[in-house]
Design goal:
Helix content: 25-40%
Number of strands: 9
Radius of gyration: 16 Å
Shape: globular
């Protein structure tokens, strides 16, 4: 409510924490605000936490318009991903990142009990185990990173439709939202890697992050 200004382009991902955040927003009456969904999501089990719905709700709270990303989050091959990225509608929405001043993202965990990617059946138990072996502690925009915030090169990453690292880092204000003990290491990695530069969290996650730092 304080950060978004008239004329801003705002990016949003998806997830439980973001759904709660956006649901708590008060109408602001901003002018000419545009909201864009920054990762694919078609097929999510819970539409209330899905990217298109959150983009719509955020735009409504900000008094602006919104664009959804007409694509799944993951596809079966890099070739399929490349075809999606070249699609005019998909490239147009992802291209909005170049004009984006604010990005609001959830911070995912690799903990199966609390992982939205696992709960929504985007990734399997086996894929999660492989990510753990690679050192993953969490994800932002479905891009997994280690405890130092380094984005990992994974097969899954080559099949992901969404904002790329360079475009993400170029956005001036990157707000990460996460809470709970299971998110502590992910919060630490996101901060260490400067994937976010604003953090909204709770005492429990902050304590875990500080103890591990």
């Amino acid at each position: 409510e304080e950060t978004v200004k008239d004329g801003d382009t705002v990016g949003v991902t998806w997830g439980v924490s973001l759904a709660e955040t956006i649901g708590a927003l008060r109408p602001t009456g901003r002018q000419n605000v545009r909201v864009a969904q920054m990762i694919g999501s078609l097929g999510a089990r819970n539409p209330d936490n899905d990217g298109p719905e959150l983009a719509r709700k955020l735009a409504r709270a900000l008094g602006g318009e919104y664009k959804t990303l007409p694509a799944p989050l993951f596809v079966d091959s890099q070739q399929a991903r490349d075809l999606f990225i070249k699609d005019r509608q998909v490239s147009e929405v992802l291209g909005m990142a170049k004009k984006m001043r604010v990005l609001i993202v959830g911070i995912g965990t690799i903990d199966l009990e609390y992982s939205s990617l696992f709960r929504e059946a985007f990734i399997s138990r086996e894929q999660t185990s492989e990510l753990v072996k690679l050192g993953a502690v969490g994800d932002i925009c479905a891009r997994h990173f280690d405890r130092n915030g380094k984005l990992l090169k994974t097969v899954l990453g080559k099949h992901t439709i969404g904002i790329e690292e360079a475009a993400l880092r170029a956005i001036p204000i990157r707000i990460g939202v996460a809470g709970g003990a299971a998110k502590g290491m992910a919060v630490l990695g996101a901060l260490r890697g400067k994937l976010i530069n604003v953090l909204v969290t709770d005492e429990i996650a902050a304590t875990v992050a500080l103890n591990e730092a």
